[in-house]
Amino acid sequence: MAKSAGSYIFNFVRGGAVGTSEALPGISGGTVALIVGLYEKLIGGAGHVVSGIKLTVTDGLRGQGMSRAKEKYGEADWHVLLPALAGMVVFLLIALLTIEPLLHDYEQYAYALFFGLVLASVWIPFSGAGLPWRPHHYLIALGVAAAAFFLTSLPAANLPAHPVVVFFAAAVAICALVLPGMSGSFILLTVGLYEPTLQAVRTVDMGYILTFAAGAITGLALFVKILQYLLDHKRQITLVVLTGVMAGSLRALWPWQDESRDIQPPTDVPATVSFLVLGFVVVAAALVWEHRKRARIEHEAGHQNVSV
Prior knowledge:
By secondary structure, the chain is an all-alpha fold. Helix content is 77%, strand content 0%. The chain has one domain.
């Protein structure tokens, strides 16, 4: 029982890390999910749920019962997903109301810290493809990185907070949650809906919130199945593309830029670089620890097989 409770708490905290990142412009929830080891669980689970909902509707209309839908729902790892999703929601709201305002006072240091975190995290999709990279893989990643660099350099727009605009902006922004390197908050900031969304949460504007939620659910349902298929059947090239996206999106986190995203001369370099290095070391240490843990488990499993 204690072990089970500890597992729920651990997954709640991991989900909380993802939720917190989604409140911060430039920080990718997908990247944080990769770092904390939740990424493929979230993608796979969301894909099974989307399939289950589809079967619920289609089989229900045909009068065929719920057996196929229940089977799809059962394929999701709910022991991980439920506490992780709860943590995401709770920490997202906390971050929106508390942490995000602090970034205005320490924006340069925060961006430097997150730049280091994401820079080290690029190793995860780069090494996760399972096969050695060939020259064309590097060219693809470079092209994707250039496109991501360009998109994250664009100045912010100022779209009206019309329900139709909010719906489609949410549908696009939620895709960034499952796409490492892209930030949902950054997308909202780009289209000018970041502050209106924060204000809606603070004032509990249910009309705005429900419209945003509907768009987010729609976007997630459409995108997650595509990504699940790509990870299952085109894993290497998908991770090559994700590596490029993450690398190019570092432009959004460059600590020396103004509100218009124009690069500025470096200031306060020692402290800023210290935060950058700190972020890099934290992720690098976590990756080394995970690698050693996995090697130890494989060694023990191999030793048991030999003994048998």
